[in-house]
Amino acid sequence: MIESPYQPSPDRYDDGMIYRRAGRSGVLLPAFSLGMWHNFGSGQAFSNVQRMAHYAFDRGITHFDLANNYGPAYGTAEENFGRLMERSFRPYRDEMFIATKAGYDMWPGPYGNWGSRKYLTASLDQSLRRMKLDYVDIFYSHRHDPETPLEETLQALVDIVRRGKALYVGLSRYPLEAARFAFRYLAERDVPCLLFQDRYNIFSRQPETSGVLSLSAASGSGFVAFSPLAQGLLTGRYLDGIPQDSRMAAGRSLQREVLTDAMLERLRALNDIARQRGQTLAEMALAWLLRDKRVTSVIVGASSAAQIEDNLRALENASFSDDELARIDALSRE
Ligand SMILES: NC(=O)c1ccc[n+]([C@@H]2O[C@H](COP(=O)([O-])OP(=O)(O)OC[C@H]3O[C@@H](n4cnc5c(N)ncnc54)[C@H](OP(=O)(O)O)[C@@H]3O)[C@@H](O)[C@H]2O)c1
């Protein structure tokens, strides 16, 4: 059977997606981006990868978040993205904002990890080959390397932009003082940090408490929140047990131990608030992030197009009363 070519929805930009400006830049990003850490690699049927990616793009999600080590297995989310590029996405390349990163262990030996110029440069070249791209829209240092001089990591990012392999650069999970130094260093070289990426959700409030969310905004950088659903905990997924096809059942990055009786009680109470708002727990957890205008985009993971559909409904109600916020705050304390 000959597959008919992919035709994106003609309504993709008139379907309720909101676009927010990334800091002081010319870039607008969708309020929701699609994260490809889990469920987009070789362990997943390509038909489902394709369904989720097409559904996302059809709904106005123009930003796809990858990294060299996403899969599982490492590299295979980028390989699948390359297949999407070849099979369906190529004509729409200029409508897409594609991110990748390097910073975690990727290949053996001393040059396949952390923040050296050697690693970052080689890793991005490999990523571009896997994704069948000439350039990415943003390349991130995936984590701060305490051993490598920060100037070396940052200058490698600057040079990657100068060589045209990335249009913008970003930082992920940098501690506050390293982030402060990096924002200044990059801005002074006219390659300002476009996006700072950190874990942020109802349970993980570190970007607020560390000050990095305020610092990003003051430095002109956009902010993207990852693991907005606490890897699925902040959804209805675990309210009645652990489904076999869930991330928790796989046990790689979300452990069963977090689902204590006390945690279940908090989740049920949050679910009640969501229900009173006419939302699912997932929708409320995502809307809660969007209420803060400093959050440029929320990067959501998914294992089905139906989850993406549910998550997009969060856009319909992202305002909270003071009472709701206070009740959510009380339940978020760890
Ligand atoms: N910079 C970094 O260091 C870093 C670190 C982590 C993540 N990220 C980025 O952020 C993205 C998102 O983070 P994440 O995948 O950890 O977490 P997440 O978005 O908090 O959780 C995604 C998981 O939640 C479940 N889910 C999603 N929507 C749902 C819905 N409507 N109803 C029920 N369950 C739902 C799915 O679990 P099931 O699979 O069980 O169905 C899905 O895989 C990643 O893909 C990656 O791009 C970046």
Annotation field: number of helices: 12
Measured by DSSP, the beta-strand proportion falls in 5-15%
Largest sheet: 8 strands, parallel, barrel
Give the names of the bound compounds. Answer: NADP nicotinamide-adenine-dinucleotide phosphate
CATH superfamily: NADP-dependent oxidoreductase domain
Mean pLDDT: 96
Number of domains: 1
Helix content bin: 25-40%
The CATH class: Alpha Beta
Based on helices, strands and strand pairing, what is the structural class? alpha/beta
Radius of gyration: 19 Å
Question: Low-confidence stretches at least 5 residues in length (pLDDT < 50)?
Answer: none
**CATH architecture classification:** Alpha-Beta Barrel
- Biggest sheet: strand arrangement: 3-4-5-6-7-8-9-10
Can you tell me the overall shape?
Answer: globular
What CATH calls the topology is TIM Barrel
Total number of β-strand segments? 10
N-to-C order of helices and strands: EEEHEHEHEHEHEHHEHHHEHH
- Amino-to-carboxy terminus distance: 54 Å
